[in-house]
């Protein structure tokens, strides 16, 4: 897909603030500092549309990025950052649960994990949460360029096993530095959007 237009259109904390366009939405969930913003920026070939931060836990809202005036990437608050208070974590948790369970235009979730490390308990809990609510999802393993190519299979299958993924196709290795996985990610996204458009026309 050629991205001509991309902009952050709003940051929301409750349903009254969500966009009312009816466009398909693809959510990105993952631990703080796992590379969600970098993933978005690489996909749309922009250096800094999605805000990256050296301070984990800074994203505290649902950030809606409108792409080609046709669909949204929705960056949700990162989890697993110890310095965020229990009260704040509980508030984020409620906000995410509301979005994931009530948003009809949410079509897919990308669970972002770090390719270098085995998924954390928080990653596993998020995956279980997504599955519990029967949401379609895929796992994006970022920073694969940090691991020697000869060890990719080892890391790939370690992540797949830890998350109990149903198939190899459920996991995409990704690198913002080399572009690894970029084409696979876009192929997946285009399929999601096609399905949404076809369903809307029925």
From TrEMBL:
One Pfam family this sequence matches: MMR_HSR1
Cofactor(s) this protein cannot do without: Mg(2+)
Domain EngB-type G: 22-195
GO biological-process terms attached to the record: division septum assembly
Keywords from the UniProt entry: Cell cycle, Cell division, GTP-binding, Magnesium, Metal-binding, Nucleotide-binding, Septation
A Gene Ontology molecular function term of the record: metal ion binding
Residues annotated as transmembrane: none
Alphabetical list of Gene3D superfamilies matching this protein: P-loop containing nucleotide triphosphate hydrolases
Gene Ontology CC entries for this record: cytosol
InterPro entries: G_ENGB_dom, GTP-bd, GTP-bd_ribosome_bio_YsxC, P-loop_NTPase
Function: Necessary for normal cell division and for the maintenance of normal septation.
Record family assignment: Belongs to the TRAFAC class TrmE-Era-EngA-EngB-Septin-like GTPase superfamily. EngB GTPase family.
Descriptive protein name: Probable GTP-binding protein EngB
Organism: Trichococcus collinsii
Biological classification of the source: Bacteria, Bacillati, Bacillota, Bacilli, Lactobacillales
